[in-house]
């Protein structure tokens, strides 16, 4: 019996939808106050406090008005935290990769080579396509953005593109692959949660996914063509500064290639990311000993480098995994780009995830989330309204739970019986869930995806949001196709 079934089997009555909106009102008002006070720094702790405040209000209403037991609410919270446990470990490993791939010179090498082969006239569209291909092969938007995405951000800066535009192209491509790859955990989760065969789910998603990507690529290509030309000397200066700070060699590309081999061999994501970080640390010692020394001695100038001792190597590698890796190149833009915070940089994200899933757990345990969903369901009389309600719920779950996995599971479980009762095939549900819960998570600043990608790319969520055209278009495309009625299949009646 899952969380929702346990909740419904023990609750006396559901809160009304009006009461269910109270926690969201508290969350919204408190977020407005916190953002007004702290601005962009609200995600460093203020937003988390708002989530905990909304959680307390939800629990109080549930326990004192609807006589819910704390044990039930706590069980739902623990179920949610358990569901995101592996994601938290992946977050830490991504932080380690950010540090090791930078200090080893892998990302600088990708930037230098990319500047030579990607022309500004097609850069945004090319960045989107590259991330889409890598994400399809890896099945992970997070891995794609943390590796290739970081390099593309550097290339975009060197070619004079606004970081918001570049991040939008990266995120659009990465989430295209995350959405349709058979290796993607969200794709598998959405298909299994709705009871749809995996490849049936993927083929059916193409109806909405391909048009969304096509429109996105046209926009990015037009934006690239209209971008003012940048003098070659600027890109050369950027590459020269990187080559002066790092030993750039094709051998460094062996780590991304070996990482790709592990992915193709379907090695679990946690093991793959760990191996990628360790391999990069070894290459850092082999090819960038001066950079490793600089990380170990951030207070000393690079000119004081005496050679890499055993103890300096140990300290430098350890700090690269978990701490700050500020390396001075003489170029402020590059210094900002290659500075990483390792696993420590992910702590605020983990803080946010735990607070978000706690709020989501209490919402589920109190029955408020189901009450609001049933409000949508009562309005769903046709395919378009049913899909619209599903899409709206997927987005809402991303906003209030702060995690796409929980959003996928909650939305699927809440609507599965309704789709069956209305006579629609489960693949319509699985597609609507992917078109909303999967792709919009990265657009919400306090969602684990939005927070992670903003941290990795060093571009605030609200800065890249307007340019994530694929992610914005996907929910609307899902509703549009349902309104047209194209390939909306009914269940076959059994005799």
Blueprint of the fold:
Elements: H1 3-10, H2 17-20, H3 22-38, H4 46-64, H5 70-83, H6 85-103, H7 106-117, H8 123-138, H9 141-158, H10 163-180, H11 185-194, H12 198-226, H13 232-245, H14 254-264, H15 269-287, H16 289-296, H17 310-322, H18 332-338, H19 347-366, H20 368-378, H21 383-401, H22 404-422, H23 426-440, H24 448-457, H25 461-464, H26 469-484
The overall average pLDDT, rounded, is 82
| Rg of Cα set | 24 Å
Domain module count: 2
Number of helices: 26
User: The biggest beta sheet, please?
Assistant: none
Overall geometry: globular
Oligomer: single chain
Order of helices and strands: HHHHHHHHHHHHHHHHHHHHHHHHHH
- Helical fraction: over 70%
Beta-strand percentage range: under 5%
Query: What are the low-pLDDT stretches, counting only 5+ consecutive residues below 50?
Result: 7-11
Strand tally is 0
Structural class: mainly alpha
Q: Whole-Å distance between the termini?
A: 30 Å
Describe the structure.
One of its GO terms (molecular function) is antiporter activity. Keywords: Antiport, Cell membrane, Membrane, Transmembrane, Transmembrane helix, Transport. InterPro entries: Na/H_Antiport_NhaC-like_C, NhaC_Na-H+_Antiporter. This is Na+/H+ antiporter NhaC. This protein is mainly alpha-helical and 495 residues long. The protein folds into 2 domains: 222 residues, no CATH class; 254 residues, no CATH class. Helix 4 runs parallel beside helix 19, helix 5 crosses helix 19 and helix 12 packs parallel to helix 23. The radius of gyration is 24 Å and the shape is globular. It starts with a helix and ends in an 11-residue tail after the last helix. About 1% of the residues have low confidence.
């Amino acid at each position: 019996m899952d969380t929702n079934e346990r909740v419904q089997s023990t609750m006396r009555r559901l809160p009304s939808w009006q009461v269910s909106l109270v926690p969201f009102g508290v969350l919204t008002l408190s977020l407005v106050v916190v953002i007004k006070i702290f601005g962009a720094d609200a995600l460093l702790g203020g937003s988390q406090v708002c989530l905990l405040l909304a959680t307390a209000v939800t629990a109080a209403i549930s326990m004192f008005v609807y006589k819910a037991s704390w044990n039930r609410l706590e069980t739902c919270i623990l179920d949610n935290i358990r569901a995101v446990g592996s994601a938290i470990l992946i977050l830490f490993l991504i932080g380690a990769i950010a540090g090791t791939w930078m200090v080893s010179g892998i990302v600088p090498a990708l930037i230098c080579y990319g500047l030579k082969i990607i022309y500004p006239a097609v850069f945004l569209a090319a960045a989107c396509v590259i991330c889409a291909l890598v994400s399809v092969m890896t099945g992970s938007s997070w891995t794609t953005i943390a590796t290739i995405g970081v390099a593309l951000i550097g290339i975009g800066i060197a070619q004079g593109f606004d970081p918001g535009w570049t991040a939008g192209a990266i995120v659009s491509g990465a989430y295209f692959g995350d959405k349709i790859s058979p290796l993607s955990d969200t794709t598998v989760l959405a298909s299994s949660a709705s009871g749809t065969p995996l490849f049936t789910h993927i083929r059916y998603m193409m109806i909405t996914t391909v048009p969304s990507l096509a429109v996105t690529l046209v926009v990015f290509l037009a934006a690239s063509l209209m971008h003012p030309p940048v003098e070659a000397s600027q890109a050369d200066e950027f590459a020269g500064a990187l080559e002066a700070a790092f030993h750039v060699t094709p051998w460094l590309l062996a780590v991304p290639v070996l990482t790709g081999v592990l992915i193709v061999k379907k090695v679990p994501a946690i093991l793959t990311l760990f191996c990628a970080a360790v391999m990069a640390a070894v290459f850092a010692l082999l090819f960038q000993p001066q950079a490793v020394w600089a990380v170990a001695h951030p207070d000393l100038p690079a000119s004081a480098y005496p050679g890499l001792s055993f103890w300096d190597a140990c300290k430098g590698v350890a700090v690269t995994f978990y701490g700050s890796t500020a390396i001075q190149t003489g170029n402020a833009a590059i210094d900002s780009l290659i500075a990483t915070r390792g696993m420590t940089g992910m702590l605020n994200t983990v803080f946010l995830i735990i607070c978000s899933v706690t709020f989501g757990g209490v919402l589920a345990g109190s029955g408020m989330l189901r009450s609001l969903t049933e409000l949508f369901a009562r309005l769903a009389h046709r395919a378009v309204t049913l899909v619209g309600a599903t899409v709206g719920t997927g987005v809402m779950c991303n906003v209030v739970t702060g995690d796409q996995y929980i959003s996928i599971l909650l939305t699927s479980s809440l609507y599965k019986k309704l789709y069956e009762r209305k006579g629609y095939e489960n693949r319509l549900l699985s597609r609507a869930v992917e078109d909303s819960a999967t792709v919009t998570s990265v657009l919400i600043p306090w969602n684990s995806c939005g927070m992670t990608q903003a941290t990795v790319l060093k571009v605030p969520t609200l800065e890249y949001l307007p340019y994530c055209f694929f992610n914005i278009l996907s929910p609307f495309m899902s509703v549009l196709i349902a309104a047209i009625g194209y390939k909306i299949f009914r269940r076959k009646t059994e005799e």
